[in-house]
Structures are given as structure tokens and as C-alpha cells.
Amino acid sequence: MLRRPVWDSGVGDAPLQTARDEGCEFPGLGAHPVWRGKVTWWQEVGGSAIVTQKIGGHSSLGMANECRLVAIQRYEELTRALQDTLDSARKKKEEENTAKHPAPI
Question: Do the Cβ atoms of 53 and 63 come closer than 8 Å?
């Protein structure tokens, strides 16, 4: 018996068909979001863009990078780091202003 490879398009339809059968289908559900998640995970655990391009079967590094998602935790870390940087700059500016214009006694 000839078996189809795991990455065959029929496998991509299985989650969608299962969701339909169970009555929990929603817009955007399918194999591609799952695949994007896997590409993201490969890079988050240290896979280079070149490795994920090859594993993901993308024709270019740009396509592999477009497929990558930013994990919520990483997004929060970057947002907090940016907020800390801005807060430090604000405090430094306030200290400079206070030094130039001390409050009257």
C-alpha cells in the first residue's frame, strides 16, 4: 500500500474537518496557523532563519521570517524593556531639569 507523506495537503485539512465535525470551527482555523506556530517555536529554541526556511519549505528567508510570529511573552518582554528605557530617559531629563532649576526654598 502506498502511503502519502505526512506533509501532504490532506493532513492540513484534518484539523479543519475535525473542528467541523465537533462543531467548533472558527474563522482562521486550519493548518497554516499551526505551521506558523511551529516555525516560531523552532526559532525561539535557537533555530536560525536558514534552518526554519529549510524545515518550513520556504523559498526565501523573507518568506520564513514573514511566517514567524512573535510570542506574547516575548512581545511583553520587549514592551516592558521599551517602557523601562523610556522611563529611565524621563527620570534623567527630570533630574537634569531639577539641577538646572532647583526648587525655591
Answer: yes
Which H, E and C letters describe 50-61, residue by residue?
HHHHHHHCCCCH
Residue with cell 517555536: 41
Together in a domain, 18 and 59: yes
Q: Which structural domain, as residue segments, surrounds residue 99? A: 70-105
**Is residue 3 predicted with pLDDT exceeding 70?**
no
In this predicted model, what pLDDT tens digit does every residue of 33-92 receive, in sequence order?
A: 777 777 777 777 887 878 877 777 777 777 766 666 666 677 788 788 889 999 999 999
Q: How many domains does the chain have?
A: 2
Which of 41, 30, 36, 27 lies closest to 73, judged by CA?
A: 41
The grid coordinates of residue 79 equal 514592551
Q: CA 10 to CA 17: how far, in whole Å?
A: 10
